[in-house]
Design goal:
A hairpin with a 5-residue loop joins strand 8 and strand 9. The protein has 462 residues and is α+β, with helices and mostly antiparallel strands. The strands form 3 sheets. A 5-stranded antiparallel sheet has the order 5-4-3-6-7. Strands 1-2 form a two-stranded antiparallel sheet. It has 3 domains: 288 residues, no CATH class; 105 residues; 43 residues, no CATH class. The chain starts with a strand and ends with a helix. 58% of the residues lie in helices and 13% in strands. This is YibE/F family protein.
């Protein structure tokens, strides 16, 4: 009577008390209701502005098309300010590179075009057989001199193609398929559920978070509503609907809320307006925003989702396993045991966060090192400060989520009826909840039977 929430075998093989289940539902149901209401209120109803792709001269590109390189060549041409070297000098001559490529689709499919490419791309390596992306500029969108054939790379009708980037669709597809196959092969049904959850997560980012931010919705509310919805789906899909998963979810939400509050304060106090890089400055211009502090804030919250989920589900699982091995332990002992695991996990996870962000910012760090700027200026500069805040805020949210999740899990588990190992008439060992008005027998994990049986016999002899 006193237990209503049961789980599978192993560490979940016991029942959760009525009080704990009621408490979990009392917190979870309003939380999910508020999340759904937030999604409905913040769901983008308008159509965000779409920017046009233009060249450096201001011409609008019609579209991007795939092409295959057939030849690459380079010549020496006069240096410009964009070729400035580390010592500040402008070289007299520099490399000017171009490739000949066959257009793979579009109005000029099969045509051979000449495309100018950055010298750095040529030096890094480009040659016949490489797949690239090119932008098409029809003659009617260009000025008179270009349309008349002044551009040596123009087609007969005056259409010009420009370099965009390499086409990386094939290797990325191979890696994605390999990743998905391995996850499902190793994780089986849980791996499949994790892949489905991952797909839904990216869908939420693309269809909800990004459009809502572009339409000017509150970034904290967008990040929290989207993140809680994503974590709810991911956790229950990958780990099943159970009290253990619910405890991990509540710990994750607590960590997210603390991360959001701290990120809001840090971005305001540190004047993180997101205008420290050329890409972000261009984004601010295209969106008409005075700064990108909201985007930075939302990014800080979302960046910690994965590692936060990892830590909280580990802590909940640790408490459940301790309870399975030692059903007599109370809240305090369960919390202390779970925190031992949490401290070990925390030490390695903090390094993971720090090195992940350092790796992402490595080109910026090298560039700063080239200029030999003072360390204090480097650390407080816009781009590095954003990475530092992202790292520290994520780490603090992670640190606080560990004891919170452990406490929630320990409180839920400690409230479950104590189990005694009894030997039934047929000689079979089973779990029976004591203090309840007739709990069902549950088969104990085989590895726990001998020790518990000896303890039971000793108790009877005493």
């Amino acid at each position: 009577m006193g237990s209503h929430h049961s789980h599978g075998a192993g560490g979940d093989d016991f029942r959760i008390g009525r009080r704990a289940l009621t408490w979990l539902l009392a917190v979870l149901v309003p939380l999910l209701a508020a999340t759904v209401a937030g999604l409905v209120m913040l769901w983008p109803s308008g159509t965000p502005t779409v920017a046009r792709q233009v060249s450096a001269q201001g011409e609008e590109a019609e579209d991007a098309y795939p092409a295959t390189v057939t030849a690459a060549s380079a010549t020496q041409c006069a240096g410009t300010s964009s070729d400035r070297q580390a010592d500040g000098t402008i070289p007299e001559t520099t490399t000017c590179a171009s490739v000949t490529a066959t257009v793979g689709s579009g109005p000029d499919q099969g045509a051979s075009v000449t495309v100018q490419v950055p010298a750095q791309v040529y030096r890094a390596g480009i040659g016949p057989g490489d797949s690239i992306q090119v932008a098409r500029y029809p003659a009617e969108t260009l000025d008179g001199s270009t349309a008349a054939g002044a551009d040596p790379g123009a087609l007969a009708d005056g259409t010009v193609y420009a370099w965009i980037d390499f086409s990386r669709g094939f290797p990325l597809t191979v890696l994605a398929i390999g990743f998905a196959v391995l996850v499902v092969a190793v994780g089986r049904l849980r791996g499949l559920a994790a892949m489905i959850g991952l797909g839904l997560s990216y869908l939420a980012v693309l269809k909800f978070m990004l459009p809502a931010l572009r339409l000017g919705e509150n970034p904290v509310l967008v990040a929290l509503a989207g993140s809680i919805a994503v974590m709810t789906v991911v956790l229950y899909l990958a780990h099943g609907v159970s009290a253990k998963t619910t405890a991990a979810l509540l710990g994750t939400v607590s960590g997210l809320a603390l991360t959001a509050l701290l990120a809001d304060w840090a971005s305001t106090a540190g004047h993180l307006n997101g205008l420290s890089s050329e890409e972000n400055y261009t984004l601010a211009q295209l969106t008409g925003s005075s700064d990108l502090s909201g985007v930075i804030l939302c990014g800080i919250i979302v960046a910690g989702l994965g590692v936060l989920n990892d830590v909280t589900i580990t802590q909940a699982s640790a408490v459940w396993e301790v309870r399975a091995h030692a059903p007599e332990l109370g809240f305090r002992q369960l919390f202390v045991s779970g925190m031992r695991v949490g401290r070990d996990h925390l030490a390695s996870t903090v390094y993971t966060i720090a090195f992940a962000y350092a790796g992402a910012a490595l080109p910026t760090l090298i560039l700063i090192d080239l200029y030999h700027q003072p360390l204090t200026r480097v650390l407080t500069g816009g781009q590095i400060a954003e990475e530092i805040v992202r790292t520290l805020v994520g780490a603090i949210g992670l640190i606080l989520a560990i004891p919170l999740t452990t406490a929630v899990a320990a409180a839920v588990v400690a409230s479950s009826p104590r189990a005694e190992l009894l030997e039934d008439a047929g000689g079979r060992l089973g779990w029976m909840t004591s203090g309840s008005g007739g709990g069902d027998d549950r088969t104990a994990p085989d590895e726990f039977q001998p020790g518990l049986l000896r303890r039971d016999r000793s108790r009877r002899r005493g």
